[in-house]
Amino acid sequence: MSGREFFTARTVAEARAGFRPRRRTAVEHVPLAAALHRVPAEPVPAPAPLPGFERSTVDGFAVRAADTFGASEGLPSYLDLLGAVRMGAAPEVAVRPGGCVAVPTGAVLPEGADAVVMVEYTAETLPGTVEVTRPVAPGGGVVGADEDVAAGAVLVPAGRPLRAPDLGLLAAAGVTAVAVHARARVAIISTGDEVVPPSTVDLAPGQVRDATASALAGLVTDAGGEPVPAGIVADEPGALKERLLEVLPEADLVVVSAGSSVGARDETAGAVAAVGDIWCHGLAIKPGKPTLLADCGGVPLVGLPGNPLSALVVFGQVGVPLVWLLAGCDTPPPPSSTRARLGRDLASAAGRLDIVQVTVREGVAEPLFGPSALLSVLTRADGYLTVPEPATGLDAGTEVEVVLYR
Amino acid sequence: MSGREFFTARTVAEARAGFRPRRRTAVEHVPLAAALHRVPAEPVPAPAPLPGFERSTVDGFAVRAADTFGASEGLPSYLDLLGAVRMGAAPEVAVRPGGCVAVPTGAVLPEGADAVVMVEYTAETLPGTVEVTRPVAPGGGVVGADEDVAAGAVLVPAGRPLRAPDLGLLAAAGVTAVAVHARARVAIISTGDEVVPPSTVDLAPGQVRDATASALAGLVTDAGGEPVPAGIVADEPGALKERLLEVLPEADLVVVSAGSSVGARDETAGAVAAVGDIWCHGLAIKPGKPTLLADCGGVPLVGLPGNPLSALVVFGQVGVPLVWLLAGCDTPPPPSSTRARLGRDLASAAGRLDIVQVTVREGVAEPLFGPSALLSVLTRADGYLTVPEPATGLDAGTEVEVVLYR
After folding, report:
1. What is the ipTM of this complex?
2. Which segments does the entry list as coiled coil (chains A, B) (predicted)?
3. Which residues of A are less than 8 Å from B260 in CB distance?
């Protein structure tokens, strides 16, 4: 069954909005040191307030603020130095009216004090007496016991990949393990009689090494997923269906890079139709039109064009968001991008998303053309720009947003 | 020795340009599947041309282009169908004048042919005869044997972290292992009598859990480095020097987050001065002024402020580029960023780089203020903007570039 005539093409926006599996990966607990970029399954609450005690934010003297009111260079307040607080220890002395206690940055505010005067606005002209030359308001130089985080407040939300600073806040709160979604397991199947493993040293005439699987594995890893190499399937009736039935039980997402010929593509559509429901066959994107999306009993499947460049472009647009979504992340982290002026006119068809590979030099985005069969374009490009679906092209000089590869 | 009075503050730009260790990590060979974001030590040349054979880029018929000249819908060229080329196999038939051979996309161009007519511009009205309704130029529908990559051409350059598509091109060329720089080993030391491990359940008064080390480990990992936790050192004379002597032989970079009090900072400077040469003490950056950079017998050392937020900001500005550089990458991959309008006026001092944490909502960057001692600012922020060194501030409404966290 070819299937091609039964399914309408969709736009990329329709696919992103409509092809959203309900499936999410299981929840697992990982130690903080392994939690970078993992997606919390639930908001993580603070077990206790932070910093947990009234804390000085400056080096200086803990005082009763009222004792400094009206102090100036010409008419300082004179306070009795009653002692000092050590870092990491409970204060051994309280502040009484007319007195002060030396405190380093980060130390506990002693009882009786409600502010800390910075050392810069003080002088110890007589032993045991501190001159204060500037008033401090109540609360000045101090953070409250729950000013950073209140007990029970959300330290990090669910669904947003953990960033380096998040790990710091979790550590501060004593959270040393986090419940996160497992990495989405992405089975990667290549098809085509001409495709051989990258380790093949001598190619027979017409053979090509599998470029797409290695590059897809990189994109999956970048999206927080776990690539599961699932080999190369020849263009034989039944072979792809058999491989699909093998990988589906263990996969959260299946990616098939189809053979590049019409026959091979039809073979793919037939095999997929035998194990699942085709959601669309054909995407309004260039390159990448012969893309297939299907639901295989709850496991989404992306059928990619055989051309490696097209396959990677499409996977970036519709596959990468799926890898994030399956692991509980609705909104993938933003890609790197830069503004540039377009170096030449670009034609496009209305209703189709065009992805154009570009170099960026001194603020000018220069499209890379040539046969789309060339893989080297993707390594020479600094990134890509998109010509949106409604546009019929972009004029040279237009300001464009270039998504940068990294 | 305090050291503070002997060293001038530097700007961040001076530090980036002048504090550049010669040291590079060793070269190791990693398989392609583990090479993502690793930094090639040498340019990787193509062992052979790609695709390696003259290849059809379309489904159609291999022809001698001259046989199609003048063909039109009204007056087609009629060619004898001589056979078909199978995918991944050598052609078994050549094209002679007046003849054609069916070829799928990606197949080898048969001998005698110099172009491929797309199937869309043909018809097989009589068995064994193909009507061509549009002329094709020589080379049309074909990529040359070395058109993607010539033998010996550079597949990927040295010094640029490998991206997903690079892995595809390397795989296509049969390169299954790459010589890359080892990950930079970054020893992370925390100091301070008040600092305890994140796993500490019950805090004594004045104690804080070590937030900085976990967050720094995340930043190091993001920069392709290998964080090496090196524990917490108390503010005791000699303790930090001893720990530094332990970690230096195994480290490519040492990071010390200093105690936050003046005394603790002086202790750090003294210990560092005893094992290396201080390059600067004080950076013209806010937050993060009390930063120290030193050369410890060829191993760079970054002494960070005790305040976790300041420490992370400074490490992002001067530490992250060092982690990349040590592994052979001069120009780190660009961060994610977005343009936004500033939501309110920002004051700054000329000559100082200000890093301002912001949220971004609907194109408006809203600064997050509050005591810099608050760690939660970094998890609430979407990113940061910089007020450049010459500026004395930015007006509300100014268009700013916000570097986004990810």
Report:
1. 0.95
2. none
3. 104-106
